[in-house]
Amino acid sequence: MTNITRRIAANPSYKWWVYSSVGAAAFITVSDQTGTTLALPRIAHELNADIPTVQWMYLIYTLFISALLLPMGRLSDMLGRRRIYTTGLVVFTCGAALAYFAGQLPLLLTAKAIQGVGVAMIQANGMALMAEAFPKKQRGTALGLYMAGIGTGAVSGPVISGIMIDAWGWRSLYLFITLVGVAEIVLSTCVIRDLVSSRDRMGNSNGLKSFDWVGAILSAGTLVLFLLSMTYGHRLGWSHHLVLMGFSFAALFLAGFIVRELKSQDSMIDLTLFKVPVFSLGIAARFLAFISGSPVYFLMPFYVIQVLGVSASRAAFFMLPAPIMMIITSPLSGRFSDKVGTKWPSVTGLCLWSTALIVFTRLEIDSNPAIVSVGMLLLGAGNGIFSSPNTAAVMTVAGDKHYGVVAALVNMVRTSGNLTGIAIGTTILVTTMTSMGFEPSLSSLMETNGAGIRTLESIELMGSFVKGLHLVFILGVCFSTCAAVFTTFRPELQQHPPATEPK
Description:
The protein is mostly helical. The chain has helices spanning about 5-10, 15-45, 50-55, 55-80, 80-100, 105-135, 140-170, 170-190, 215-235, 240-265, 275-305, 310-320, 320-340, 345-360, 370-400, 405-435, 455-490.
């Protein structure tokens, strides 16, 4: 590092300025996601579109993020994190401004795609910037604070979005995001610096000429095909020729990506990292954990509102313990893992995660909604306690020069795990309801109001839904238990040296 960057890195306040920027970016991106979900019915009505169509706003947003995370992480390692991060904020903010002015759904979908590109650039660097700004002995603390920022957005984002949408319409959400985005661009431009000099950046000898464009296309193609196949598998049927073709081509793209990365001198990601048990088992545990947890956040609102008959506003109250516990436990777990190691805090978090899913298997059509809050509290605590040390372990193994691409990989695994878990959970639920003679659609449950008079048919319908939930959560316990086993049997972090430098 140059003398200037050394002084910046040594300044005790610099890490907190970085956190102010990264935390604000995490907050605004999460608020955008939750706000868009709340706004979908209004958008569908105003733009004369049905719900399945407007749901592409979420799907296209997620696909762009997942597909571009790894390439953007690699680019940040090559060109500098500040450049890619601030550019991502600009792209994201421009997408929000376009969404504000969008008068037709195609233009709105384009805006969400642009935002997805920006979020990929932001998320590929947020963790990396935090890891660079904080000393190695405080890395767990830094990543815990990052997760707390996400939790804060998850708590306050729906509240703020709901108030704005009710008062001024769905466009006000994107106006708010645009204004905050502009402020965030100014803040980040002023405070963030590249602490790794250009000559020390990974693979920057020939600039963009050394970027693995083929590897980027293959990795993006793999994720897009896989996630689309998982998303539409339960809708079209897992034996449908389009679904099978999607999985087949995803496998071919993955094989091509692996071969390309092994042979390339400027690989997208150093695959030798997976030879280190801490890294490979940490990534596997993360993927399984988010597969197990994502169906809860997707399906629980249907249960609370349509089965228990709780209003939407009260339903949000019963779901709040999860993000609140993430805010509390993430920094504490990160700080604790800095002192005792990353392994056993991760195992503890996964045990709480599994306990929460076991609680959810006890739900019935007339359960007390407080049970949902207990389960969400345990799930949020488990998520917060697990995520920070797990991420710290994976990123520390990778080494300083790989922070960007590995941070991108960590976020990509989370996103892919979430979509995979939702697809699997929905499939199990729909299959269960179908086998019991009910319409294989979640929308059929919307016809039943749990607060009204329950007929025998409505009780049986609710019973089929709850039985499907039980099976989903039982499978989730299996996934989270496997994640805990993987973590238990991996070595502690300091027992292994970092992986070899890229070719």
